[in-house]
Design goal:
By secondary structure, the chain is an alpha/beta fold. It is built from twelve helices and 13 strands. The protein has two domains: 9-104 and 111-245, Type I PLP-dependent aspartate aminotransferase-like (Major domain) (Aspartate Aminotransferase, domain 2), CATH 3.40.640.10; 248-368, Aspartate Aminotransferase, domain 1 (Alpha-Beta Complex). A seven-stranded mixed β-sheet has the order 1-9-8-5-4-2-3, with helices on both faces. A three-stranded antiparallel β-sheet has the order 7-6-11, with no helix packed on it. Bound molecules: pyridoxal-5'-phosphate.
């Protein structure tokens, strides 16, 4: 029986390990471990390709969100609108600055924040909206920007999952006041560890984050004159990310072709595909998420056939113990969390792997359970 692991890292290493190891060894031998030319190169590349004035690399997407909120002065007096479905860090960044996350329902077709529900949840304390490009799905940027502007809110784009996605000729990472990326090992461009970036046109946010990642050290005077933590990216990880960026266009094409091939084969089954090609949209297929009734049954069936799966996400953010004091009313999100299922998907999947995954899903619906 074929075995399809959920992550492609082992397969990627098998193909590329000599290039990766020689790159890492050369960076370690250079003796420069942080704040070097590799970080600078990565920041220049990110700012250029995302058409933002500033890019600041930090230790993780989680820290990027936290530092952005700090830079905007968001604190215990404030509320931040945030979707009910995302990775935990999207919301805990808000509680980490002492503010209140206000959970907003999602559009069940694409799992993105439902702005009509967001509108209803605005209060006098609302200071920002944190929009998540979940699974690499993108909103109409202008609509979200107009929403933030007309309600006088900062707009933060959590583009952790959307590196390389585009809609209407605008890239994820270009929306609102400031955006963040994650380079964790599961992402399409990934560190062998953690990494993240803040990208923004706002020079004040950039200045704050640049100093904040280095314990508040003013790069001009050398004085510690503001809030800070230690959140730099290591030079070897920055070099690894630069190396991946060289071939990213090609990686993206492979992802898109393979995702299309898989989606074609399962699209007529009684399931919903959460990541779909829309008009003027080009995705990274960071996660290939479907939704169906009897999700747990399908999970067991796939696992029994040696296909590893995950669920992103099994519960709404406010259902996690750490956030339950911020419980909210999000009907669509709660319904969707019972149906979501993430299939294994990465560029190293062979055509036969994709056909095998599709075949097993067909078997589930056709032969066994319908
Ligand atoms: C939507 C979202 N936001 C934030 C993060 C946090 O990024 P990191 O893992 O780099 O801290 C992630 C990471 O998985 C994410 O998916």
């Amino acid at each position: 029986m074929k075995k399809i692991p959920f992550f492609g890292i082992t397969r990627m290493l098998k193909k590329q390990d000599s290039s990766i190891f020689s790159l890492l060894v050369s960076k370690i031998r250079s003796g420069v471990f942080v704040d070097g030319l590799n970080t600078l190169q990565l920041e220049e590349e990110l700012a250029k390709s995302y058409n933002r004035n500033n890019a600041i690399c930090v230790s993780s997407g989680t820290d990027a969100l936290f530092l952005v909120l700090k830079s905007l002065g968001i604190d215990k007096n404030d509320e931040v609108l945030v979707p009910a479905i995302s990775f935990i860090a999207t919301a805990t960044a808000i509680t980490r600055v002492g503010a209140k996350p206000v959970f907003v329902d999602i559009n069940p077709n694409n799992a993105l924040m439902d702005l009509s529900d967001a509108e209803k949840k605005i209060t006098a304390k609302t200071k920002a909206v944190m929009f998540v490009d979940l699974y690499g799905n993108l909103p109409d940027f202008e609509v979200v920007e107009d929403f933030a502007k007309s309600n006088n809110l900062f707009l933060i784009e959590d583009a952790a999952q959307a590196f390389g996605c585009e809609r209407n000729n605008r890239k994820a990472g270009s929306m609102g006041d400031v955006s963040i990326f994650s380079f964790d090992p599961t992402k399409p461009v990934s560190a062998f560890g953690t990494g993240g970036a803040v990208i923004t046109d706002n020079d004040d946010i950039a200045k704050f984050c640049r100093a904040a990642r280095q314990n508040g050290k003013n790069p001009k005077t050398g004085e510690y004159d503001q809030f800070g933590i230690n959140s730099r990216i290591s030079e070897s990880q920055a070099a690894l990310l630069n190396w991946q960026l060289e071939s990213f266009e090609n990686t993206l094409k492979i992802r898109q072709q393979k995702a299309k091939y898989l989606i074609e084969q399962i699209k007529n089954l009684p399931l919903q595909i959460l990541v779909i090609e829309q008009t003027n949209y080009s995705g990274n297929f960071h996660k290939l998420v479907i939704a169906c009734d009897n999700r747990d049954d399908l999970v067991r069936y796939l696992n029994k056939n040696s296909i590893e799966t995950h669920v992103h996400y099994r519960e709404c953010l406010y259902q996690h113990p750490v956030l339950k004091e911020f419980a909210s009313d999000c009907f669509n999100a709660e319904m969707l969390t019972h149906k979501l299922l993430t299939l294994p998907f990465y560029p190293e999947l062979e055509v036969e792997d994709i056909e095998y995954i599709a075949q097993i899903i067909h078997n589930y619906f056709n032969e066994i359970h319908v």
